[in-house]
Amino acid sequence: MVGLGIAWRLGRRAAVTVFDRGTTGSGASHAAAGMLAAACEAEPGEEHLVALGRESQARWPCFAEELLRESGVDVELRREGTLVLALTADDQAEIGHRLEFQRKLELPLEWLPAAATRAREPHLAGKIAGALFSPQDHQVDNRKLARALRIAAEAAGVTIHEHRPVKEISVQGGRTKGVILEDGTSFAADIVVLAAGAWSRQIGGLPPDRRPPVRPVKGQMLALQMDAAAPLLNHVLWAPGAYLVPRRDGRLIVGGTVEEKGFDETITAGGLLTLLEAAWRAVPAVEELPVAEIWVGHRPGSRDDAPILGRGPLEGLFYATGHHRNGILLAPVTADAIARLILDDVVEPAIGPFGLERFLPARAAE
To answer: Under CATH, which number does the domain 2-74+142-213+303-365 receive?
Structure first.
């Protein structure tokens, strides 16, 4: 998703080729839930990440409209907002503690008592403490987004090669010269953007300390099928232990586990049980819904779980990876900022704190 967005922006002014190890948009982008949660997830120590997320959040309406014009695909930007549910007094206390920090950042958040929460979502559990309402944390359909970006990128002249994994970046004289694929084929390029998600660190050609410190973070998820005409939920719902994201077609996305298990793709009974039990405690009626799909994705997590954006250590190399759970949220600002950096040599202030140099020893970063 990140790579396609950058390619789309670059394609208007440059010749662009994308190499994908699989089907375009089939990685973390396909597995995601599409939440644009810049405010309700904000935690201490993430001030720069919150600012980046809010900047991207503000760009989403125009981004979605532009994609609709250029691709004909509606990515279904829904603006009902997000509820962070407190089932118990302990849940409420935890939300309240985080809310103190969030209010210092002047984030648009509002505590709703139980009655007001139930007025918004009548199918919630019989006993709740209330919910935090985030009116600007929306959602999009991530799979439609992937399709829209591909169509728009190709319309802009971008060439896309699927099932062509990159083995390494070709380097000569301290600058990038292109890429070498797993099958040995070489492609020359003046500029290389490393946007390989959870696989970014596996691409060779760079010294070990200059490979982005990105690891796969496994997530199991499932989709239940609601009646689209009478959905159980309309808001994105963060419940203790799971999030629930309703789609216009009646699908209810339930996710997601967070597991440090490399590229393991096993779907486990324990993982699904954890998600289903959490969903059931929040919305008991989900027990009657059929299971439409189960899947596993791998989020690209950096050491601090924030993205790696900007110039690389070689002339002509740029990073756009490590977005962890925020790849969909940060798609607009990443595409805009990296394209502007490459084409106009301008660093947007929002991405300034997210360079690779933050992970390097002081002397090496100089």
So the answer is: 3.50.50.60
